[in-house]
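Entry type: protein chain
Record version: 2
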Amino acid sequence: MILDKETAYKTAELLLQIKAIQLNPETPFTWASGIQSPIYCDNRLALSYPAVRNFLRQEFVRKIEERYGKPEVIAGVATGAIGIGILVAEAMGLPFIYIRPEAKGHGRKNQIEGKIDKGQNVVVIEDLISTGKSSLKAIDALEDAEVNIKGMAAIFTYNFETATSQFKERDLDVFTLSDYKHLVAFAKTTDKFSAEQLELLDMWSENPQAWRSN
């Protein structure tokens, strides 16, 4: 779920300004999965820009309090959401933990790093949602720890149906600050992209797996 148009547009604008999101419809990026994409997103860059990270932190805190009240713990999904998760936890005066993709193969073999007790209320922070696979791995680990997952908050999502349907199946409440739909809508308000480029961006959202720019 998106907060509101103003927040979604402002988030998209800031991420484009610092090149955390790059749009290149005519010379697409190739993801590890092989998907050809006109967008590349690395929200970790936001941590290097105080004004941007402060905006993201502020919006996360506002919406978490509106939607879930005050949880007992903030959890970040490693590695991309550790930084922003810590900022949110600090602003809310809450403990912070993070979840690895897999349990360590040595030492205490933790998958969850930090202190958390059974039954505690947790909100999970993600930086980016694509297929939802990494997000659900984190949810699995938290469920194994027998905590109460209030919901998940992310900076950005590509709006892939596979993620949406999986979250719905798991009854996981998710909101994001912005998404691909609002990003493209914002791009159309600028003069940085031609009509042909904007059409390619629209076409990708309709069928990312089969999309080609040539």
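Comment: The helical segments are 5-17, 50-68, 82-92, 133-144, 161-169, 180-187, 195-206.
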